[in-house]
Amino acid sequence: MIILEKPCHFIARFEKKLLLGIFFLGALCGCQSAESCHKVLDAKCVQCHSISTSCAKIGQSEGWWLKTIDAMVKLGTEVSKQERKMLAKCLSNPSEATVAEICK
After folding, report:
1. 93 within 8 A of 62, measured Cβ to Cβ
2. Domain ranges of the chain
3. Pick the residue with more confidence: 37 or 5?
4. Measured between alpha carbons, how far is 85 from 104 in angstroms, rounded to an integer?
5. Alpha carbon of 31 to those of 5, 23, 24, 41, 43: distances in Å?
6. Is-contact 65 40, C-beta < 8 A?
7. 29-59 per-position pLDDT tens digit
């Protein structure tokens, strides 16, 4: 019985460390918050468009946003690949916090 408890204890400790590692890896890989999405919109989109233009289109598909962002890049907007993906993701499937932050 003691032999069985030690491996279970080891596995439980390993699972906790694994979950923490996944959480921090996600944070380091660019999981973006509503604030980050809002900052990129302000820096890249609001120079030419009002924020209401973006707010009216929130919820369009990620593919639609990627095409729209690509069209803006062709017109001269400078958007990194990471910003492009983040904008398309946060604008296509926004949380309530994202909408509140962007469209306030």
Report:
1. yes
2. 1-31, 34-102
3. 37
4. 23
5. 37, 10, 10, 16, 19
6. no
7. 444 556 688 889 888 888 888 888 888 999 9
Whole-model pTM?
A: 0.64
pLDDT tens digits, 44-103: 888 888 888 888 999 999 999 999 999 999 999 999 999 999 999 999 988 887 788 888
Query: Of how many residues is the chain composed?
Result: 104
Q: Please check whether residue 101 is in contact with residue 36, taking contact to mean a CB–CB distance below 8 angstroms.
A: no
State the chain's mean pLDDT as an integer.
Answer: 76
Q: Hey, is 70 helix, strand or coil?
A: helix
**Residues 83/40, Cβ–Cβ less than 8 Å:** yes
User: Residue 41 carries which side chain, given as an amino acid letter?
Assistant: L
Position 25 pLDDT exceeds 50: no
